[in-house]
Every structure is written in C-alpha cells, then in structure tokens.
C-alpha cells in the first residue's frame, strides 16, 4: 500500500478466525473493501468464514501476505507477538499492519515497522457477541485509533467518518485503564446481571431464566437513565441513604454470599464517592 492511498484501494488480508475475524470479514465486504483472503491456524474455522462470505483461504500466512497490502491481525492478544514475528521475516515496505487489541500498544507491531510497514491499532469499542441474524455490531462501534504516521491516521479517520462511525484517539499510557473500563462496561455489567439472577435462584425466589426475565426491565431502564446521569438520580437505598435497609443487605450477604458482599460494598462505596464528587 502506498502511504497516501485510500483504504478502499488496498487488498486486505485477515489473520485469525475468532469472533473478530467472523465479524470483520462481512463488515469490510459490506463497505465495499477488497479482501485478499483469510489465514488461520484453525483452518476449519477459517474455511467456514470464507465459505460464508465468498473469500479465499490461504494455506500459509506468507501466501496471504503476498496477496495483501493491509494485514489485520484478528487474533488473541497473546498471539500477536508470534504472528507479527512470522509476517516480518520478509520486507513489508508498502504494507499497513493492524492489530485490534484494546490493551496492547502500537509498539507490539515493532517487528513489522522494522520490516518497513506502517502500523496502526484499530480497536472497536464493542462486544462482538451476537444472536443469529442480528446486524453486525461493528457497524455501530466507536473506534479507538493509534497510528504510526499522520498520513495513515488521516486516511483511516476519513474512511471511518465516511461510513458514519466515531473515531477517538487513545494515548499509549491510557490503554490498560481504557480497556479495563471497557471490560467493566461489558463483561462486568453482564456478570453483575448474572450474579443478581443467581441470587434470586439460590434464595428460592425463582429459577435462573425466570430471574433474568424479572430483572431485565429494571436493567434496561437503569441503562436508559444512565445516558441522562447528570439530570436523573437512580433511586434506591444508596441514593436515599437508607442505612437500616443497607445494613440488612450487608448482613444477609456477608452471612451467605461473602464474595457478593464485597462486590456490593465496593459498588456502594464507589456510588457514594461519585455522589460526593458531583456535589462537591
């Protein structure tokens, strides 16, 4: 890829076959991008994606590199080092190499840079889990961006802005806490919901599926109000500072569910601190 060329003029190779690859291939095709093909250590999964979306599967990563000018490393964070080393054994002059980790820095792609490539981190701030026949979640994801050059950054911002997606920059020192916050908003939120449902079930209030159904309206409403947090105060004993009710909660949880007791107390303390900061 010439540094000044537009993203749409380049042939893209996908390395990996997990959830990100499964979402990014149809996403790129939907937005009229040229895909050279896919390679993965798990050839069965790569073939499944390729068959569904009508792209090529390569037997080796070196073959994929030869037919591509942009390489997207859609692999686990722990696998990035090894993949970068393997693709950097030959010259990558004129290439753009991208990883999509929310936590790992741009510098992890240094072997590709030394081989001549431009590099970038493109992190979609979105869970990639989806139900059958749901729209591709990548289409509504804000995109965290770090690039090795201004030219590449401008080209990527222009492309994402052109399809209506918000782009934001993440400083290297902020990446671990940025990603930790994203995990809390996704996996943390899900676990909190499941923990609440498990309490219903363990205490004999109702079964797990019924508990999830009963809790869903309050969860949805709370999330809706969360977007207006400066105007709306979430109701409940924390907000009202109902000390007697809170003591009963803590006593019951400490006796039967010590882990949830610690979680409840930590969240309550954070809620109180936030309230003090808002009024202070």
State the gist of this model.
This protein has 280 residues and is an alpha/beta fold.
Q: Layout of helices and strands, plus pairs?
A:
Blueprint lengths: L10 E5 L3 H12 L3 E6 L3 H11 L7 H6 L3 E4 L3 H11 L8 E4 L10 H5 L3 E7 L18 E5 L2 H13 L4 E3 L5 H28 L5 H19 L10 H4 L2 H14 L1 H22 L1
Parallel strand pairs: 1-2, 1-3, 3-4, 4-5, 6-7
Antiparallel strand pairs: 5-6
Helix pairs in contact: 7-8, 10-11
Folded structure, characterized:
With about 280 residues, the chain is an alpha/beta fold. The protein folds into two domains: about 5-170, 3-Layer(aba) Sandwich (Rossmann fold); about 175-280. Helices cover about 50% and strands about 10% of the residues. Strands 2-1-3-4-5-6-7 form a seven-stranded mixed beta sheet, sandwiched between helices. Helix 6 links the parallel strand 6 (about 145) and strand 7 (about 165-170).
């Amino acid at each position: 890829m010439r540094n000044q060329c537009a993203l749409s003029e380049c042939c893209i190779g996908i390395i990996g076959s997990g959830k990100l690859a499964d979402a990014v291939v149809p996403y790129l095709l939907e937005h009229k991008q040229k895909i050279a093909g896919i390679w993965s250590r798990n050839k069965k999964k790569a073939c499944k994606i390729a068959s569904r979306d009508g792209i090529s599967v390569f037997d080796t990563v070196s073959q994929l590199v030869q037919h591509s000018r942009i390489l997207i490393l859609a692999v686990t964070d722990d696998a990035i080092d090894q993949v970068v080393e393997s693709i950097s054994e030959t010259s990558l002059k004129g290439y753009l190499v991208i990883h999509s980790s929310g936590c790992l820095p741009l510098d992890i792609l240094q072997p590709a840079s030394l081989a001549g490539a431009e590099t970038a981190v493109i992190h979609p701030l979105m869970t990639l889990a989806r139900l059958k026949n749901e729209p591709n979640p990548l289409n509504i994801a804000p995109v965290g961006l770090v690039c090795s050059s201004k030219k590449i950054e401008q080209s990527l911002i222009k492309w994402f802005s052109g399809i209506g997606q918000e782009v934001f920059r993440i400083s290297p020192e902020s990446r671990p806490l940025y990603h930790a916050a994203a995990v809390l908003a996704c996996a943390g939120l899900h676990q909190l919901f499941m923990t609440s449902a498990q309490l219903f079930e363990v205490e004999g209030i109702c079964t797990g599926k019924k508990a999830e159904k009963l809790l869903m309206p309050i969860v949805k409403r709370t999330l809706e109000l969360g977007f207006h947090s400066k105007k709306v105060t979430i109701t409940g004993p924390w907000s009202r500072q109902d000390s007697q009710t809170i003591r009963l909660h803590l006593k019951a949880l400490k006796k039967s569910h010590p882990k949830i007791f610690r979680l409840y107390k930590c969240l309550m303390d954070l809620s109180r601190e936030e309230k003090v900061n808002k009024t202070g």
